[in-house]
What we know:
Number of helices: 6
Radius of gyration: 23 Å
Helix content: 25-40%
Largest sheet: 9 strands, antiparallel
Number of domains: 2
CATH superfamily of the largest domain: Naphthalene 1,2-dioxygenase Alpha Subunit, Chain A, domain 1
Number of strands: 21
CATH topology of the largest domain: Naphthalene 1,2-dioxygenase Alpha Subunit, Chain A, domain 1
Order of helices and strands: EEEEEEEEEEEEHEHEEHEEEEEHEHH
Strand content: 25-35%
Shape: globular
Distance between the termini: 32 Å
Amino acid sequence: MELAPTLKSQTIQNRMREVGINPNYWYPVAWADELQPGKIIPVVIWQQAVAVYRDQNLQLHALEDACPHKGVALHEGKVQDDHLVCRYHGWKFNGDGHCVHIPYLPKEQKLPCAQAVSYPVQEKYNIVWVFPGDKELAEDTPLPDVPEYDHPDWLAILIPDNFQGHFSICNENTMDVFHGFLHQNLQGWFDPVLLNLRQNQNSVKVEYRVSYQGWITKFLGLSEQGNQVTTRTICIKYDYPHYQSCLDGVSSIYLIRLPVGMTETKSFSLLFLKVGLPKWILKQIKPQLSQMIWRFLFKKFLDQDVEMVESEQRTYLANPGRRYVEINPAIIALQRLIVGQYEDFMQQSRKLLNHNHRKGEQSSVVTRGISSELTSENP
């Protein structure tokens, strides 16, 4: 659906800062190269604690971070072969979460029915991904497509970050090209114009025209002379729950978000640049060059964004009833999409809970969490 790219006043829905996620997507939890064999890391995906580990055969596993015996955090245990051993009593669980050994139980005695919830997990683009929703949907749910990854013409820059803010605030910051005013001391973009806006049930796509001037313009290959004004088009696409932003074939960034909880969001993002160096030189200095560009250039932009996101979150928490006005229709479209995804998932969850209740079946971790959300909703 194409929307009018007209700037006009609209009131922001405060409930945006309270909505949850649709868990039926892949979410990033760690950089893959940091998860070595035998290592366990604790992660949180929208208030759900998960223990992720790599076994001695290099396979990844993800279990609910709670031993079904006493509830002790499983990430405090250890990895034996392809099993996860609880630190408290030594109960051993396989990658599917089934208890396969209790050290003090006689061998002839049957093991109790104790199982930790397991989650689909995979690695791609040097990122570990976990699917916290309905397992049956995981295989048919694609990861973001990143064609620049491992392409020799592109320099990849890994961007980790942590925001003390609701994921909707972080996403609005990315969609809002008009905040270039914030970065003016860093020679950021200026004179933004919203050109096109499209939205459907799963995505929002926006095009802005922006101008650049200064040494960054020359560095990025936007112009041969840094002192001249260069006008380009930025295309931003939000495919729930992640972003892709492209600048006229010069750069591309994938903002891959992990909503941790109501006031915390992590990012595992990939920035790609075309650098005017011979490929054989670029290949030798890629890691060092990536670190330098990130540390001395783009981190400064991100630090300013983090400051604004966290300021917005603090103000909201201090007065959740305060009303705000927005004039960018791309932000309103984004809010509509985020609320729609959450409401669609909650509706499906209600049906599942009612179905399980009628059949007398126990709910999964996801539906148990949704059940608590349903009981806490306003009537």
